Structures are given as structure tokens and as C-alpha cells.
Automatic annotation (TrEMBL):
Gene3D superfamilies: Kelch-type beta propeller. It comes from the Bacteria. It comes from Dictyobacter formicarum. Residues 31-52 have a biased composition (Polar residues). PANTHER family: KELCH DOMAIN-CONTAINING PROTEIN, KELCH DOMAIN-CONTAINING PROTEIN 4. The lineage of its organism: Bacteria, Bacillati, Chloroflexota, Ktedonobacteria, Ktedonobacterales. This is Fucose-specific lectin.
Amino acid sequence: MFITSLALLVVLIIVLSWVAFQLYAGKLSTQNASSPHLTPTKQTDAPTSTVINAAPVPQVTPPRRDSTMAYDPLHHVVLLFGGTTTEAADAQQTNETWAWNGHGWKQLHPESSPPALQGTMVYDAASQRVILFLYQVQSAGKVANEMWSWDGTTWQQLYPATMPAVIGASMAYDEARHEIVLFGGGVPSMRTVTMVNTTWTWDGMNWHQQYPATSPSPRSGAAMTYDAAHQQIILYGGTGDGSGVSSVASETWTWDGTTWQQRQGTGVPFQDQNVRLIYDSVIRQTLLFGATNSDATWTWNGNTWVSVATHGAPTAPYLSASTYDDAAQSVIVYAAQGNSKTGATPVPQTWIWNGTAWKLQP
């Protein structure tokens, strides 16, 4: 009797243990399916859009010219603003904002946007904002310019007490002195534009006119960038008289924070007011490219210009905007004006300089 009862007790314990194990295993299986800390079973029918870190599908930017571009290192994107569209017979200025993330372009839709005006922009490391300087001619001889800043999400208008009243000025950020430098431009009148050679600096709050002992002659549209290797701003070319290529189009000047100095005997890569200057932080030299009748690329070594590529650079008939992409360590050029030599329909183009050669992106 005692043996029978003991046997039944042993059987009951085994059955209850088996049931408890099954319940626990089922609970663990349910946890595995939903826990974020455990690897779930791969879903073969999951849509591809759920893949983490997938590169976004690039959007196609409408063909345009006269855009402006700057790299935002805080948000790791290249920003492109505005320009004049070339799709329709009557070209229209736009105030669209686009971003390049290294894979493709994406149109942004900020809550607030600047007006559709031409201008220039640079990244201000002191304020950690992209600064946009827009040109607006209200009437003959009267310029009412605007300034905006980009915080990574939207645009915000700035209202400095003093504003340079010029169009077509050149602008660059001086990393050594933590300020933006704006040079030259033109003042429109009833029928002409008078070139000026004023130098202004932006301290994050207001513009201050400088009075250097030496300055380049009056001009607009000069190429300008900061040369980190030599801690100075380089200015090249520009338009001096408004009637096409002039003598100033082949001049090289440097700004040291106090005055301008013309660099004599530096060679004449181009006599063209449409060129671009971009500092390449990998090779630690400034690139010069984008002439109307030449696809060569030159670099500035601190004393002279050196030819590094005789062919392959995007030329002025295509040129729109350019900057240095720190994340990709390459120069990026958005070029979509179209080929004026062949009369071909303008198409958007993105070019990359990898330190040795140019490549048109697919």
C-alpha cells in the first residue's frame, strides 16, 4: 500500500514537472519574439523599406544655375539653396533647400525659408550655423539685402544693425580669426553697376567694415575660400568692369586678417571670372577649376599655382555651386546649367573630386 502510494506520488511529480517545463518554454519563446534585446527570427517576407540604415532613394534636383552651397559639419550634410531653374523658357528663381548626404540629393521642407534671391553662403563655425547672404535690388541704386541662418532644421532671418549694400560679393569663413569675410561686389544704379572693393567682417552679431592698407581693385564675382594650411583667405579673379573678362580676372590675392596682399609671379591658370576655389583638406591645398574654356584643375601651394589635372573638371557652362564635403573628404560640385556649346537640354549633374581626379556621379 505504501509502495503504491509512493509510486503514484513519483508519477504525479514527473507529470507536474513536465507541464511546468512546457509552460516556461512557451513563455520564453514569446519573449524571444518581442524582446528588443534578443535577436528575432529573420522575416523573409519583410519589406525592404524596413532595413535599418538603408540609403535613401536619391531625388532628382531640377536643373538650375547660380545656386549656392555649403557644408554643415554639425549635421554632416551638404546644403544647397536657391538658384535659377532652366527647365522652362522663362527661367524662374527658386528658394528650395536641398541636402546631399553622400548618396544622393533630398529636398528639405523647412518651416521657414528665405525668399527666392541670389546669394552666397558659408558655414560659420563660431555660431555653428550656415549663414546665407542674399542680394536684393529694390530699385535703381538701392540694395536691401537679407541674412538668414540654418540650424539643421529650418531657416531663421537675421537682423544685423549694419548690412553691406552690395550684390555679387564674395564670402568665406576665416577659421583662424573666427569670422566671416565679405569682399567687393557691385552697387547698382539706373543703368550700370559700380564695382566696389570694400572688406567687411561678420562677428556673429553684426557686420563691421574694415579699412586695410592694401585692397584688390573693385570687382564682383571673385572666387574666394579659406586656406587652412596657410591660415589665410585666397581670392582669385572676378569681374572688374562688368563687360566680360578684364585684367582682374587673373589676379591672386590673400587676406591675413588685417590687409590684402597681391601675390605676384604666381602664374595665370585662367583669365576667367567664373572659376571656383575650394580648399581640399586631404591634400591640404586649394583647388581652382571651372573656367569657361578649360576643364583643367590647379592647386595653390602657398606661393604659386600648380597644374594637377589638364582635363576632366566641370566647366563654367555646367557650373552652379561647389563646396568641400568633410564627411566624404571630397570636393562636391552641383552643376546643372547645361552645355552652351552644343545647345543640349540642361540636366542636373553632381561631380566629386577625390583628391586626384573628377568623377561624374550616376
